[in-house]
Amino acid sequence: MGIQERRSLIKEIEELSRSRLITYITGDRRGLETRIANDVQPLIHEHLRDIGVVPKLNLFLYTAGGDALAGWGIVILLREFCKSLGVIIPYRALSCGTLISLGADEVIMAKGAQLSPIDPSLASPYNPPAPGQMQPGAVPLLPVSVEDVMGYLKLARDEVGIKGDEGLAKIVGFLSEKIHPLALGAVYRSREQIALLAHKLLASHEKDKTKIDRMVDTLTKELPSHQYVIAREEAKNLGFPIVDPPEPLEELIWKLHKEYESWLELNKPYNPEELLGANPSAVVGFDRAAIESLKPNAELKTHVFRTEKEIRRVQGNQPGVPFPVVGIQERNTTERWIEI
User: Fold this and answer.
1) Structure pTM?
2) CA–CA distance, 27 with 19 (Å, rounded to integer)
3) What's the structural domain count of the chain?
4) Is there a domain that residue 146 lies in?
5) H or E stretch including 279?
6) Residue with more model confidence, 311 or 319
7) CA spacing 20 to 30 A to 323: which of 9, 57, 276, 289?
8) Are 114 and 94 in contact (CB under 8 A)?
9) Does residue 311 fall inside a structural domain?
10) Which one has a higher pLDDT value, 187 or 29?
């Protein structure tokens, strides 16, 4: 299974859906998670130029999320090359993936496919440090969820009953001691930005302003948490232009998803000990994301985001421990998109 299988499946999906197809997969392999980011736009543009302007274009999308402005840019770019845009969701299109889906004329969700709320989590140099042990020199930061911040303020007002300027000033002051004020300011701007982008994406194909407002409010404010899963029927009820694929198309969609799952090892957590085995060190490559489409000659055009790591087993002393402790040291030697 591999390149030729994916090429055949993409060709069959194009024929059944009467549409050209681009696939964009950002892997969520535990320990090697990859996000939607701006660096992908020139590559998608390259694929689109090969395809040309077409009546209908589908984006086959699997992602756990990423940068909202990158998602917005992807939709704008795709729409430059088609009259009708569809998004095919084999399994997960969460957060920024859901935002991208808002810009589609139709969303083809396979059985068991998932969308999610689009309230963002922010990562900036001003975020608080994540708890727990870390490697020397590493400073992992805790993402700040927009809705967690809003939930804290709502809890103080509505449940605890804090009222008045002085009381609210105290809880905001306490929050500022835990989270840098600049990070809190970014939270507010991000909340406004995500709502604006969602409105604009929906307005590209939906004219009912009341429906747009309702969908945006639900996806940014009203659902219980960022981890909430929106299945196909609920997505229909929310107003997404959901299309149930016919059984032959559904089968092809799932087969293609399984090809990417196998290639990117989505269900296999990253375990450096397993990779080292009995060896003291190793250099290992990981394919973490992919973009694919058919060239004019029907061959497969593939870009892959590849990380190479140097992994080393080391011994060191820790305060209070009378014997050397064995640990893993690793560094990324290269990390880039390449065409294969």
Assistant:
1) 0.85
2) 25
3) 2
4) yes
5) none
6) 311
7) 276
8) yes
9) no
10) 29
